[in-house]
Amino acid sequence: MLKPETIRIIQSTVPVLEVYGNAITKRFYERMFAEHPELLNIFNHANQKQGRQQQALANAVYAAAKHIDRLEAILPAVKQIAHKHRSLGVKPEHYPIVGRHLLAAIKEVLGEAATDEIIAAWGEAYGMIAEAFIGVEQKMYEESVHQPGGWEGFRSFRVVKKVKESQPITSFYLVPADGGGPASFLPGQYISVRVQIPGSPYTHIRQYSLSDSPGKPYYRISVKKEEGEGNRPDGQVSVYLHDQIQEGDTLDLSAPAGEFVLEKEGEKPVVLISGGVGLTPMMSMLNSLVESNPGRKVTFLHAARSGEHHAFRQAVLETAAAHPQVSAYWCYSEPTDEDRDSRSFHKDGYVELDWLKAVVPAKEASFYVCGPVPFLQNVYAQLKEWGVADQDLHYEFFGPAASLEAPQNVEV
After folding, report:
1. Residues 330 and 371 in one domain
2. Catalytic-role residue among 20, 126, 137, 329
3. Same domain, 333 and 293
4. Active-site residue among 95, 329, 332, 380?
5. Coil, strand or helix at 169
6. Residue-wise over 163-196: b if at least 16 C-beta within 10 A, else e?
7. What is the mean pLDDT of the chain?
8. Is 95 a catalytic residue?
9. DSSP symbols for 56-117
């Protein structure tokens, strides 16, 4: 337990962190990578360049300071981050490195305002928070290893099939190269893929949702080829997977992880809402529901740019045709003439509340939402406006967590 005086000091820094949080975390990463470049083998370089990782850490530090007197309020966020850490291979020995550079960054950015008293209080608070993370992650590591088919660290998987699902999305079917079976997982979870790209001094790790139901002899991931636009560069790993990895090649995978999972118990209707490649965990959830709970009603809504960008369309239609409890609807932001002529979609434009009310039988359902951050912001705001209960709203960010404030329409 933290001393009352420590809590008071930490809480007094909340307004400062609100203003300088990003500057502190930017300086933190600069310092840490300069002294420990080996950690670039773990962190997502693209998220660093785009500032998403810095923003996510700033948000986490701010939340920890704001709730320092009742850290149980941020426990869900701790578990979500711990899943990512376990999937990436973050270990207890990394925490002192992070702590040292975080405190130094606070001191550098705030200057004389960061008194010895403040730095000491933050050092004490960080130590307690780090212990909590280490404890949660240690349990996750143990569960990962000891489950049937489980393993520690990264395991080699062979690509047995590669299927183009849409213009930007390709699926990879993966089986353990050692001949054993894969560990099971919960619908909605992801795995980490580690690759060594020729010419790059560091390994690259990316997390991809498993896009089929558990219980198969393979894992399936469905990867969007991230081609750069404007000042945004190509996605190194996604381009490498699409262009270089072929059937017969191997990839290193960590065991499944993640908190965004289907609640399989109960009879409440399920609504799956996805944008772009955010439909990958929804495919796992949909397939799991019709296999294990065939009486449960499911509404599947997907937003894509056009029919050319729409993955798994035929697979979902076939599932709906075979299972009358499933209904499916598409929203295209830029439908082609062919899309319009074939009437292959249900809504032109973006997901809007009136349309949601028209196709979703009732708001008393379990809603799962996944897609780009602006898409999440938009759908989340509309569901809240409709009056969907907080406990019925489940969502996942692809990449570092962001804010769900400021909804807006977005191309997917």
Report:
1. yes
2. 137
3. yes
4. 95
5. strand
6. eebbbbbbbbbbbbeeeeebbebbbbbbbbbbbe
7. 92
8. yes
9. HHHHHHHHHHHTTT-GGGGHHHHHHHHHHHHHHT--TTHHHHHHHHHHHHHHHHHGGGS-HH
Pairing of strands 190-195, 250-254: antiparallel
Count of structural domains within the chain: 3
33 is in an annotated binding site: no
Active-site annotation holds for 247: no
Place of tokens 């809007």: 352
What integer pLDDT is reported at residue 407 of this predicted model? 38
- Provide the domain limits for residue 103: 4-146
Compare 50 and 144 and report the one with higher pLDDT: 144
- Whose tokens are 């376990």? That residue is 86
User: 312-322: per-residue pLDDT in tens?
Assistant: 999 999 999 99
Please state, in angstroms and as integers, the Cα–Cα distance from residue 369 to each residue in 110, 194, 392, 397, following that order.
38, 26, 11, 9
Calpha distance 283→304 (Å, rounded) = 15
- Alpha-carbon gap, residue 71 to 21, rounded angstroms: 19
Same structural domain, 188 and 284: no
The answer to whether position 389 is within a domain reads yes
